[in-house]
Automatic annotation (TrEMBL):
Reaction it catalyzes: Hydrolysis of terminal, non-reducing alpha-D-galactose residues in alpha-D-galactosides, including galactose oligosaccharides, galactomannans and galactolipids
PROSITE patterns: ALPHA_GALACTOSIDASE
Residues the entry annotates as binding substrate: W200, D367, D368, R444, K477, W478, D479, M480, N481, C529, D551
InterPro entries noted in UniProt: Aldolase_TIM (IPR013785), Alpga-gal_N_sf (IPR038417), Alpha-glycosidase_related (IPR050985), GH (IPR017853), Glyco_hydro_27/36_CS (IPR000111), Glyco_hydro_36 (IPR002252), Glyco_hydro_36_C (IPR031705), Glyco_hydro_36_N (IPR031704)
GO molecular function: alpha-galactosidase activity
Natural source organism: Enterococcus gallinarum
Source organism, top-level taxon: Bacteria
Protein EC: 3.2.1.22
Protein name, per record: Alpha-galactosidase
Length: 742
């Protein structure tokens, strides 16, 4: 998968993609191509690719003694500001206050197979037979700096992973004030910059901004990837559709402050960069010190937005999600939050658990409020000791009752937080993220613990471990409900470590806690959460195979949230709960069938008061759970297709297929008067040479492919008898099965 030609041209390729780099005339590392596979490249092909004689008009030769050479219009792998290229560079480094205009030259190249999984830091991993890596070492002799960039290509996938680490080889201390993890340079193809932006309760809405000369950026300075923006971004060619056309995806395997930006210059050259946000960041490199940037991944597809979602999902499910959870059935959860909020005791919980078990659910998740004296959100975070008023016989006894029902048990924690009204805070006021100034912001009545301090991480681990052992715990819901303000670590101050390292060290502390839990309890299922989907990223997914995607459980809103999420993340990565009506976030009433049809795409759960359900509703839940169990692997790990265009907001069609089986769900939000009499939904994944069973009707693949699935008959004011969908918030599920070839 890797060709190296005369030590100057590097070609990573498989049957889907090619990524080509070369050594520029000044020995810096240049970029040549990323796109559909070029197969094996001959010497002639290489010559052809590297030939560049036309200097772009208006560029100034500041560099070297070659009238035709300038960095200004060259595609580079590691651009830096300060030479003949005036765009923003990928890294900045100072010695004291003096900028070092680094001149990294290619020094060494090596290749190796496989990529180990290490819990200390999230990154992709692969078996030896599944990946090849190319490590290029760049040296700046004068500034005594070394940069190693490792590119990994994976068997059968359209993704390249990029890792970088910088080493200070000199005795002189240096200051790294920015280091982007990934750079991708492309010629503009009327690109739209696609990003997943939104807010609390409205996460990951797909936004697309056409590029124009200048810079566009999204990012986070909240200490977490955030509700507002997501590190997953893409460049979509203007003519790309759902299923065709070129799209480049990019993501970071990181959960902290990030920046994703795209700059287009006067010659239509596009520079996409992702990495730790340089604001509030600077890292001191003492002699011999190494700084490793988070991993960045770039994905290419020429199969449009569905191709991007599918490539991203395939890569994440194989090379980011923990091997233990890959393809493993996820339990159907009952979560008590929207059923009880803080108002519960053991008796009530056990009754709910018994009812959930009777309906077919498999894991009871005890949410917020079980510890300290927490009857509302103003106290007790940090005191991970069961409330004796709620659990008079101890939490071990409660856990046994749940397990005796044949259910798994999950427990909610918010490990990174502490309430001012808590024993932990009384004992360790210095464990809080807090500037020496008097003012400290309180969010949701709580402070953030200083996870840059290893003693804090250790203490929280000890408290959580006690509960895991006592309850023989199967599942953790790891929440995080406020962001970091007045960022300052008393610990770093004591250690003489600059505060500009705080945000990154904080997130490394979060990863350290994940590492501790998963080292001792490797089979525990951790569900990530941050006030809903405020930390939905590959850093978290490396440890937690699923994340609570939003505090908005309304099925109509979830259609958009899940559609957005599926552009960059797999279906198995979000948990969906059927909740009560009127919905607690938007007050909307939708049918149970509609809610269940939306929630079944991905790991399923229920979060509502089971005792206020009618017998008919309970029966419908029972039946849906039987259906879900029969199709669980398809609905968790199948290939997902969005079958309606992004512009179609009133009708959404989702399909999921795996081998012989497919399920397609048609959703219509608002009813309309006199809709089209008859319409069909094209099915992208049908094999025209096979026959299919649509419910009990045998149809040829050609008919389904060329004509499509007949839409449900919509109520149009005259078809009282035959309408299959009437009124607002309608769903209709089709089952398709390929008939075995003779
Ligand atoms: C925010 C989460 O997203 C909710 O699901 C719930 O766990 C609450 N926190 C509990 O405080």
């Amino acid at each position: 998968m890797i060709e190296i030609i005369s030590d100057t041209i590097f070609h990573l390729h498989n049957e889907k993609i090619s990524y080509v780099m070369h050594v520029l005339p000044n020995r810096q590392l240049g970029h040549l191509y990323f796109g559909p596979s070029l197969g094996h490249l001959s010497a002639n092909d290489m010559d052809y690719l590297t030939k560049k004689e036309n200097k772009s008009a208006g560029t100034v030769k500041f560099f070297e003694n070659d009238g035709l050479f300038t960095l200004a219009d060259r595609f580079q792998e590691l651009p830096t500001y300060g030479s003949s290229d005036f765009r923003e560079g990928a890294f900045t480094i100072f010695a004291e206050d003096v900028p070092l205009y680094v001149d990294f030259k290619v020094a060494e190249v090596e290749t190796f197979a496989g990529k180990e999984r290490e819990l200390v830091k999230p990154a992709s991993f692969a078996e030896k037979a599944e990946s090849q890596s190319l490590r290029i070492t760049l040296i700046d002799k004068q500034r005594q700096l070394k940069m190693e960039i490792t590119y990994t290509i994976f068997v059968g996938l359209g993704t390249i992973a990029r890792n970088q680490r910088i080493t200070n080889l000199s005795a002189e201390k240096k200051q790294l004030s920015s280091l982007m993890s990934g750079v991708l340079e492309l010629r503009n193809q009327q690109f739209e910059f696609v990003h997943l932006s939104g807010a609390w309760l409205k996460e990951r809405q797909i936004k697309a901004t056409p590029l124009t000369q200048g810079t566009f950026r999204v990012g986070s300075l909240k200490g977490a990837s955030g509700h507002q923006h997501n590190p997953f971004v893409a460049l979509k060619a203007a003519n790309a559709t759902n299923d065709q056309g070129r799209v480049y995806g990019a993501n970071l395997i990181y959960s902290g402050n990030f920046l994703a930006q795209v700059e287009m210059d006067e010659w239509d050259n596009v520079r996409l960069m992702l990495g730790i946000h340089p604001e509030q960041f600077s890292w001191t490199l003492q002699q011999g010190a190494v700084f490793e940037a988070p991993e960045c991944i770039f994905t290419f597809t020429d199969e449009g937005l569905n191709g991007l979602g599918q490539e991203s999902a395939a890569f994440i499910e194989k090379h980011v999600i923990a091997p233990y959870w890959q393809k493993r059935p996820r339990p159907i959860v009952f979560n008590n939050w929207e059923a009880t909020y803080f108002d519960f005791d053991q008796e009530k919980l056990v009754a709910l658990a018994a009812e959930s078990q009777a309906l077919g659910m498999e894991c009871f998740v005890l949410d917020d409020g079980w510890f300290g004296k927490r009857d509302n959100d103003r106290s007790s975070l940090g005191d991970w000791v069961p409330d004796p008023a709620k659990f008079p016989n101890g939490i071990g006894h409660f856990a046994k009752q749940i397990h005796d029902l044949g259910l798994q048990l999950g427990v909610w924690f918010e490990p990174e937080m502490v309430s001012p009204d808590s024993q932990l805070y009384q004992e360790h006021p210095d464990w809080v993220v807090r500037h020496p100034y008097e003012r400290i912001s309180v969010g949701r009545g709580q402070y953030v613990l200083d996870f840059a301090n290893p003693a804090v991480v250790e203490a929280i681990f000890a408290a959580i471990k006690k509960i895991i052992v006592e309850t023989d715990l199967d599942y953790i819901k790891w929440d995080m409900n406020r962001n970091i303000t007045e960022a300052y670590s008393p610990y770093l101050a004591d250690e003489g470590i600059p505060q500009t390292e705080f945000f990154h060290r904080y997130i490394l502390g979060v990863y350290a806690l994940y590492q501790k839990i998963l080292t001792e309890f490797p089979e525990i299922l951790i569900e990530g959460c941050a006030g809903g989907g405020g930390r939905y990223d590959l850093g978290i997914l490396f440890y937690s195979p699923q994340i609570w995607p939003s505090d908005d459980s309304d099925a109509v809103e979830r259609l958009q949230i899940q559609t957005g999420t599926l552009l960059g993340y797999p279906m198995s990565s979000f948990s969906n709960h059927v909740s009560a009506c009127p919905n607690h976030q938007v007050g909307r009433n939708t049918s149970l069938a509609f809610r269940q049809s939306v929630a079944m795409f991905g790991p399923l759960g229920y979060e509502l008061d089971l005792f206020s359900l009618s017998a008919a509703e309970k029966q419908a839940i029972k039946e849906q759970i039987i259906f879900y169990k029969a199709h669980r692997q398809l609905l968790t790990y199948g290939t997902f297709y969005r079958m309606t265009d992004l512009s179609q907001k009133n009708e959404v069609v989702w399909g999921v297929s795996h081998q012989e089986e497919a399920l397609i769900a048609y959703f219509r939000i608002l009813a309309e008067a006199n809709p089209a009499a008859e319409a069909f939904i094209p099915v992208p994944f049908i094999d025209p040479d096979r026959s299919y069973l649509l419910e009990n009707e045998q149809l040829s693949g050609k008919v389904l492919k060329q004509i499509g699935l007949r839409k449900p008959y919509l109520f149009n004011a005259v078809n009282h008898q035959t309408a299959q969908a009437t009124g607002d918030f309608q769903s209709f599920v089709y089952q398709i099965k390929a008939i075995k070839k003779e």
